[in-house]
Amino acid sequence: MTAVPKINPNHVRRVPKRSSITKITKSVRREVLERSEGCCERCGRSSAYAFEMSHLVQASHGGRGDDPANIVLLCGPSVNTGTCHNFADYTAEGRKWRMKKHEELKRYYEQ
Asked: Are 71 and 53 in contact (CB under 8 A)?
């Protein structure tokens, strides 16, 4: 029988996993909700089926979740056509809007 190595509960990774880098933190969620005042940051709707936090630089491209300049509140869900989250994720115009909004928010947080 082979020995099973013990799992160290105090182990800390030297390099964090991508999922922990792109995960939206609680403090960023609070900041984005305060900044947007609970409204969609693209169309300005205050009531929708759902509001979702969205990465401006996609998580798959290394977009960080601990940077409020990279997160916006959009009406969703992202899989429904006609919502702002769907527009931002699945259309060429939406990708241009995301880049423009990201630049705007970077300037906002530099001040």
From this structure: yes
